[in-house]
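re: that complex we talked abt at group meeting.

here r the seqs, copy pasted straight from the sheet so there may be weird spacing, ignore it
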Amino acid sequence: MNEGKINEQILNSIKEVSKDDMEIENFLKDLLFEEIEHPGRWQWRDIYSKKIKEYSERWDNNSEN
Amino acid sequence: MRIEKIILKNYRQFRDVEILLNKSLSSDLNIFIGKNGAGKTNILNAINWCLYGDEPHLSKDSQQLPMLNLQTIKETIDEGDQEVMVEVYVKLEEERTIIFTRRATYRVYKEERLPQLRNCDFEARFSDEKGNTKFLQNEDAVSLVERFVSKDMREFFFFDGERLDNYFKIATIQNISHAVFVISQIDLLRNKIENRLDTVLRELRREAGKENPKIDEIRNRLEEDEDKLKDVENRIEECKKQIEIAKGKAKECSDNLMRIPDVEALEKERERLKREKKSKKEILDTKKKERQDLLFEYEKIIFLWPAIENSLQTINEKKRLKEIPPTVDRSLLEEILKNKVCSICGTPLNDTSEKRVNDLLQNIKLSSIISQKLLNMENPLRSFIEESKFFDEKLRKINYEITDYNKNLERIEIDLSEIDKKLSGYDPERIRRWQEQRKEYEEIQTKNQKLLGQLEMKRDELNKSIDDLKKQYEDELKKEKKFELIKKQIDFCSKALDVAKKTEEIILRQTREKIESETNKLFFNLIWKKETFKNVEIKPDFNINLIHSMGYECLGTISSAEREVLALSFTLALQTISGFNSPILIDTPVARVSDELRTNFGKVLLDVSTGQQIILLFTPSEYDKDISKLLDPRSSGRFMLKLSSNEKEVKMEVL
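got the structure back, here u go
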């Protein structure tokens, strides 16, 4: 928002709430940067689906909860 | 960021004006002075029009007029197009400048009809890292504006003094919470990431449902419940909004009622004073009558006073000469001389005795009757003298009482006029309306509170049902190996959504706390009354309160100047937290501030201008001697706006 930057607080909170689940943390940060980069209309559905596939593949289910 | 230049061509009163907003080492304060109608507010409108495409501060008169400059229209002889252009140069912190330009083309007609808008373009241009000029147009340029001065946030940067004064009435909690959502980027999390993850999650679930009817049936029920939950959550939000609006309106009525004196008590006091006045007036009239009677009673004494005094003097003199009381009766002596025989002893008078009687008669001046009368007069005359001594005392006493009653009546008159002054301007009808409205809003609040409770209960039920269905859905997926991959994606997406929601909660809380702390810091730094207030509170629902040092909420009863400082502190706190650091432009900043507080508020604006671009638009009367003395030496630029004699164009003079 501010010159394309993401609120540091959000990034830190995502890290804190993800509790070392790096895939979830990076996935959400990735989405935030995508959203910042595309404030207008864009093909978000494809990007989101692609990223879910990509990150979930590397994701260890057992780290969940 | 700061606005470094504004170019206006054919925009309303500004036919061809370039405004260079300078910055000095000590301040970034630019001042515009112009009479009403000279186009001050249209500078604010021009910036808004250029960046956002609208003119939110347009006066009623200007609304009737075309945007195209009237002189330009007049000078357009043949039918043709004319262009309105506003260009705003925005300088970013790293010395980059973005130029935002909005152009509108109008068709001007020969006959007297308003020019018609034919086309409007918006463009942004800037140099990229390599030094090449880049152009963005329309939607893309709008997106760029959103990055620097979001339209949602503009009301916290560009406003008029009236809005600043009414800030906490206009900027209701919903607006403030919206601002917090924007500045903290919670809207990005909630409206973009969470909503989109939710959509993708549903699609993934549907995909699995296509392979298994049971899974699809559970998914259907799950989606139904999730939709219901969304609906309930929206209704909860709406309900909370209604409660806040009603609360705000009720508070507004209470503030209005608080600002007026206790009418009932004053009316009672007024009645009591009127009764006292009447009774004192009656007594005063009686006293005046008593004085009149007294004067009338003593009038004869006063009138005859010289005669009484003379008479008593004569009597005293006669007494001293032993003429009274009379020793010999004059008529007796005259009888003796006539008869030549003593009337007492019968002896005839000889020459010697006749001579003695004659001498005696000569010496007797008054007859014994007169002497006796004089003696008879003496006592009443003395009693008059005696009485006159009481007259003085009585008159003094009665005069004192009359003076006292007059003084009392004067005091009553003063008290009555004070009460009348307090009560003037507050017509009982309006007061009654405020009381009724407050009652209505309080009822709306109660009704919505009840509804909110019911909705929250429903939400809890739905959440429980959704959890059960999710579990059932998961169990079904687990049963078949072919769903392994999609289940992993669903689990991943669900967890990401959960993390996003928890992050949102944390950010919201932290942002509120930061804004509260920053507002407090700024407010107590800027306000001249350091001991009167305890703190500024921003509640979880973003309701702002100013707490008096005595512990009560005092936002509704503080002065305009104090309210404007609080609004300014809050605005600056929003900017600090958001990192937007946009210029603050205030139209008529001190118009609503009472004379004695103007200098204080001026100092506040000066303080703010040391770290922030401030643009102030004053009327000449507002920019009085004191304000000018304070701001002139520190301002980085001053401009006088002068309307041409035909009132169609404004010329700008740099002071």
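couple things i noticed - The mean pLDDT of chain B is 85. Chain B touches chain A at residues 92, 139-140, 142-143, 146-148, 150, 182-185, 188-189, 192-193, 196-197, 199-200, 203-204, 488-489, 491-493, 495-496, 499-500, 502-503, 506-507, 510-511, 578-580 (CB under 8 Å).
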